[in-house]
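Discussion board: Methods & Data

I've been asked by a reviewer to show the raw model output for two of the constructs in my manuscript, not just the figures. I'm not sure how much to include, so I'm pasting the format here to get opinions. Each protein appears as its amino acid sequence followed by a line of discrete structure tokens. Is this the kind of thing reviewers expect to see in a supplement, or should I convert it first? Here is construct A:
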Amino acid sequence: MRGWQVRRWIACRLEFKGRRRTLLQPGRFTELFFLDEATALAAGHRPCAECRREDFVRFRQAWAEDRGQDPPRADDLDRVLHAERIDGGKRLHPATLRDLPGGSMVADEGRAWLVVHGDLIAWSPFGYGERRAVPGSTRVLSLTAPSVIGALQAGYAPMLHPTAGLP
């Protein structure tokens, strides 16, 4: 069984210019729905260059600032993201909590957590829950790819579900 057909994994708007699609069409891409953008980024997706143009431009600008280069083309982003998200399964990246910016997602104690101001907030498909303070020296497995972490560190702020409790 093949796990993917294309490198382009994008996070789109649910509504855009009144377009309607029939979901799960054979031979077409598979639509996935995420709790929020932090979850989509952790899954290896990036903002769509069409329906989320402003977010895409901000994302690639932050990506470029982190790397000290010109903003990349969408294909260049997708090539890097693809390499970072796969390794026979979901690729996890060892990290120290203090090195991760807000909006990153980590795996710890068999659960997924959102990093916010150095704290961890428990993730579920229905929203965020328990918040806990964790020492910055804690070693975790980042679900968010290194290149996306760089974009977050350079100022890209993903949209978060209201249950994250942020203004």
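Construct B, same format:
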Amino acid sequence: MVINTNMAAITSANNLDQSTNLLNESLARLSSGSKIVNPSDNPAGLAESISLGAQINQTAAANANVSNAVSFLQTQDGYLQQVGSALDQMSTLAVESQDVTKTNTERADYQQEFNTLAGYITDTATKDFNGVSLFDGSTLAVTTDAEGALFQMTGVNLGAAAYTAATAADVSTTTGAVAALTAVTSAITQLATDRATIGANEERLTYTGDELGVLQDNLTAANSQLTDVDVATESTNYAKYQILVQSGVSMLAQANQNPQTVLKLLS
């Protein structure tokens, strides 16, 4: 029997140390909710998780860009609906002003209303969305994914000749009213084209937004598989490591008691 070197105690101490480390790691996982508490837990998984996390954030940002662009388009169309109503009324005034039973005084009243509606359209052409002009005709490049792909969103120009000709028309005379009707009709045709363009842009971006939402969900699920702890499994491991630590403490105490039996040989 050896006294100076207690191999049983040394072995028990090493096993206890290992069990304690495993218990601490399990506790850290449960308390953090993550399988990767330290880089050494899963270096490759950590690298992949970092990459996925960046892609998730980039996709979310692209989705926000698309949502804002859709809001921009909806604002455009809201204004154009009112412009359409104004043009409809202007065309009605142009027809009414051609009535040979009307006097020039009455036509002057029509002209006053016509000018007011034209002023509304002209004012609408200056509106903006968060500082970005709604109706200057500029094509806006919308970032549609995490790789920076762009969708060219065709602009609408309320300063186009079809609109300015209509707003500059004059219904104060029969001859002017005939020309005004032609100009306003052209503006209505242009408005129909512009609203169709807005609708096509909105449809395209809505599909893109839905796609980005699905992609973001799938990336999040993939990242979860790498990093999120399985509480049921880890709780089982924690209980196992607790038992190992407790039994290790008991065994170490027992191993340290064994050399005392030497005293019986000396007594």
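Answer (T.O., handling editor elsewhere):
This is acceptable in a supplement if you add a one-line summary per construct. For B, something like: The chain has two domains: 7-33+231-266, 55-227.
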